[in-house]
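Reading a protein record of the kind used here takes only a little practice. The record below shows the convention in full:
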Amino acid sequence: MASARKADLKQETLKKQGALNPHPMDVVDELFAASRFFDPRDLVQVRYEMLRRVEKDGWPVTKSAQGFGFSRVAFYRARAAFRNAGIPGLIPLRRGPRHAHKLSADVVAYAREALTRDPSLSAADLPPLIKKRFGISIHRRSIERALKRGEKRG
């Protein structure tokens, strides 16, 4: 029972870090079958071992990529990332915007001002006002998060 909880904790940690392999069942290399040290759910470890098979064991790229559940293109991308950044380069990059790119300080200030002027307004009422004033469409949840971020700083 304790080992199951430990495995679940590791899986949850890998997921939070963005390092959970979405296809662990595709990893068929014997290292991962023969030892509990090697975890096919750990994407960084899988990528590293795929690279190591080619660099140290002399495997062909195609054989290594297939044994670890990747394409040749994925192998070359992983190798380039590893050469540029080492192990951290094997961690998948987060996709999508890194910050609230539509919500400039001016937009957030306007939203705050509107809520102060008219306390009956809610974040759900703000998107049409912002659209009219700034010409941009923003979801109410984005506005709520931006307002909340400002509260934490203030």
About this structure: The chain is about 60% helix and 0% strand. The two ends are 46 Å apart (CA to CA). The chain has two domains: 2-90, 105-153.
